[in-house]
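Two quick folds needed for the group meeting slides. Do the first one here.
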Amino acid sequence: MVRIIKQHLMGTLSESTIEAWIVPHLTVGKRGFPPTVPLVSVVQAILHRLKTGCQWRELPTKQFFGDKGITWNGVFYHFNKWSKDGCWLNVWLNLLRQNRSHLDMSSVELDGSQTLCKNGGEAVGYQKRKSGEATNSLYLSDSRGVMLAMATPQEGQHHDLFEIKQLFGEICQMLKEAGIDVLGLFLNADPGFDSQDFKDFCEEKEIIANIKPNPRKKSPKDRDPYESGTHIFDEELYKDRTVIEHANAWMDAFKMLLVRFETTVRNWKALNLLAFSVMFLRRINKSMKV
């Protein structure tokens, strides 16, 4: 009965999937749960919060741990520890390394996303369009909408080109660590990324940047998408970019990501990477059943 309840509440991954792909990358410290509490149950509780959006103190711990006296503080302690140790990043990078055959790298799609923040904290700033405090994050997906990487979130008042070389460099480094070569990648990006500096940076990395020209640029020279042979804009291939918008919509199914309550950038990014992992594992499991 407890297993049925946990599966219903979690609604994300099976125990066997968590045991195979997540638990092996989690560190175990001196302070922790009794040996009778399996780490898979801790992960299930964290996934429940990610999925439902409940606050830490509202976690239905008895439905995951029975009468073993485990509180929400213990679950948060482990999530925070695994975040500090880089475990969630390791889970994600390993998933990409081991399952590259499930990716479609015929193109990659770059997008920025603003999230309202309720508790303040790191990388939070006022965003006029959101009419509130927000954080801005850059995401990269493959051509099927599988999220690949995200950069360090920035304060909400910044546009997508803020510190773009550094932040896109982070994304490229994440791909490299996952064994994905950026050389020759075809990248689609919206007009918010229409910058000669960014195009030149992509060219340095031998990435083909297909960036839609920004109509708000004033001079004809600024609006010209044919500045050099490597910067020709292809309208048909740009249509593939819609998949990252779909991917962002799928991310919204994780209620914890709709509004940011985490005060640290580290934990906010960890929740995103965990959502990446869940979505990718679902896709892998689905393809294996076909």
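Then this one, please, same format:
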Amino acid sequence: MESVIGDLEGSVDDLTEVVQGCDAVVFTAGSGGHTGADKTVMIDLDGAIKSMEAARKAGVKRFVIVSAIGVHKRENWMESAPYYSAAKHYADEWLVNSGLDYTIIRPGGLTNDEGTRKVKVAEELDRGKIPREDVANVILAVLEDDTTVGKSFDLTSGEHAVEEALRSI
């Protein structure tokens, strides 16, 4: 798999050029925990939406977004950073209504631990943690599994192999 990287603070036209000819767009960007609300809105919300617009303009139908656990329900939003939860929530909502063949992955807290390829997926999970490597393993698996199109799910470390866990959604 070949990957390309675009500037989320650039224009939709610039992003369209970057994704032209791609089979899928995978949005994994986040402004990080040390930026303010302004940067979070510009990357996690506007950058995501510009990526979706660019995918549509370039004719790329498949779009996978890495969101955040619990953001699909306001009562689960993080009290310490409601702007982060709101940005992720509305980017996800925009994607659902975009006409793209989407998958929304909502991982728990990300760690730098080595991946185990053992995960838990469900419409709603308690907050948990997951190695970034296992999130990447799930991204690769959903790109190969058309039954995940139109699906949204929480993701944490678990007991099931990635492919087996994805069959449960």
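Slide caption for protein two: The chain has a mean pLDDT of 93.
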